Amino acid sequence: MRNLIQHIPAGTETIVFDWNGTLLDDVDYCLSITNAMLQEFALPKLTRTRYRDIFTFPVQSYYQQLGFDFSRHPFPALATRWMQSYTADVATKVDLFHETETMIADLKRNGYRLAILTAAIESDVHELLAHHGIDEAFDEVYGLDHCEASSKVERGKQLYASMGLDPGRTLLIGDTDHDFEVGRALGAPTLLLADGHQSYERLQPLECKVLPTRYG
């Protein structure tokens, strides 16, 4: 994880991290919750490989690929139900990726400003950051105020304006093609980690640096 520092472009002043699948190692936990719902609705369960091949933003499109019929089960109700299961045990069952705390300490020691831009519920992320003891490392945390995991672009624009960020001196680090889309919309370089919620095969064609693993 500490090797990420060598991939930071020269001149970078601020690093904006995604949360789920980037700092928080919650892929298997998310998969278990999704499979429990699929079983309840008599839909085919996912393997880990299949999950990472089809997971996407907005999450509503992903639910359609899973086979949910929104005319019978509206997406907002499904998303709320999934999030209730997620928040119930995430603090006790999910940890940060190995060496995340050390990497963050190294970045702060080297003078980088840090922020989080996430499609998760902002208040929930604040609670988890405090739970893991890294909340004070981040100047800003921008998330959503609902559980439908839609686009982060508008919140990203608000974050950049609030912090007065120069896109050319700001690196966005994430684990999905949506993080790349956000970086492109903000005019900022993006570094993607392909050991989160999407596979290397999904991310590799994108026009940014993609690491097969953060530990390489």
What does this structure look like?
- The structure is a single chain.
- With 216 residues, the protein is an alpha/beta fold.
- The protein folds into two domains: 2-26 and 96-211, Rossmann fold; 27-93.
- The chain has helices at 27-40, 48-54, 59-66, 75-93, 100-109, 122-131, 153-163, 177-186, 200-203; strands at 14-17, 113-121, 140-144, 170-174, 190-193, 209-211.
- It has a six-stranded parallel beta sheet with strand order 3-2-1-4-5-6.
- The longest helix has 19 residues, at 75-93.
- The chain is globular and about 50 Å long.
- The termini are close together.
- Its EC number is 3.1.3.18.
- It catalyses: 2-phosphoglycolate + H2O = glycolate + phosphate.
Helix vs. strand class = alpha/beta
> How many β-strands, per DSSP?
6
Q: List the domain count as a whole number.
A: 2
CATH architect. name of the largest domain: 3-Layer(aba) Sandwich
Biggest beta sheet summary: 6 strands, parallel
